[in-house]
Design a protein that fits this description.
This protein is mainly beta and 248 residues long. It is built from two helices and 15 strands. The strands form three sheets. Strands 1, 2, 3, 4, 5, 6 and 7 form a seven-stranded mixed beta sheet that branches. Strands 11-8-14-15 form a four-stranded mixed beta sheet. It is globular and about 55 Å long.
Length: 248
């Protein structure tokens, strides 16, 4: 009886070893790739695909289009392509995932017109400070050069000192703001002004040149995207959004 028990235990162990070797061979031959997809769709809806397969937006498979915040983890058994299409089937993004890394992250932001998937590196602010990388890369309506624009950071609260700082944009339309902001302040205003004369807005008074955002958390860099926009073909001014709240 004892011999039979030992033989049974040996067969089970052999089976486990064989299974493990088989799994190892499979993983070596077929790379199991994790793909983390994080994004935010401000307007419209988007369809996401891995290869030719649609990524379902609901667990029951009834929704083929994503809206609002996107956070999903997918698995591929080898190199693949991640692609994004708008509601009309127009391709917006195609990203090759070659399998070099077994864990991959794709991030994007879609405003209803254009898709952003490459975020600039955000510097770290000084300890305790709020850091904001303000990105105003394109000005398709005003055509004003970035070097002629500055950002005024304006923070005010009743009974508290007013904070006002001006930061000129570089030629790429970026500037990093590293600022001490007491916790009593919860919101701030970004004003796009003339670099040569910060008392004047960079657009005329009929256009929106102000963006109101919540004060980002200290010690972490935030990315604020500024863009010009039109409504019904009429140039209205600027809009702004703090992207890192959606893409981190």
């Amino acid at each position: 009886m004892k011999i039979l028990q030992q033989l049974a235990a040996f067969m089970v162990a052999l089976s486990l070893v064989s299974c493990t070797k088989s799994q190892q061979a499979f993983f070596r031959e077929h790379k199991i790739i994790d793909i983390h997809i994080n994004g935010y769709i401000a307007q419209d809806s988007l369809q996401l695909k891995l290869g030719n397969s649609i990524i379902e937006a609901s667990e029951d498979g009834s929704a083929h289009y994503f809206q609002g915040r996107v956070s999903t983890k997918q698995v591929s058994n080898g190199p693949t392509t991640f692609s994004v299409f708008d509601s009309k089937g127009v391709p917006l993004l195609e990203k090759k995932i070659d399998g070099t890394a077994l864990s991959n992250t794709v991030k994007f932001y879609y405003d209803g017109t254009s898709l952003i998937d490459k975020l600039p590196e955000i510097p770290k602010p000084a300890p305790g400070n709020v850091g904001m990388l303000i990105n105003f890369p394109e000005r398709p309506f005003s055509k004003v050069p970035a070097k002629d624009i500055a950002v005024e950071v304006y923070i005010a609260k009743r009974g508290q000192p007013t904070i006002r700082k001006v930061y000129p944009l570089n030629e790429e339309g970026n500037v990093f703001v590293d600022l001490t902001i007491p916790a009593t302040y919860t919101s701030l205003t970004l004003r796009m002004v003339k670099a040569a004369n910060p008392s004047e807005m960079y657009l005329d008074n009929s256009k929106t040149t102000i963006v109101l955002i919540n004060v980002p958390k200290p010690d972490k860099g935030a990315l604020v995207l500024i863009k010009e926009y039109a409504d019904g073909g009429n140039f209205m001014g600027i809009q702004g959004i703090e992207l890192t709240q959606y893409l981190n």
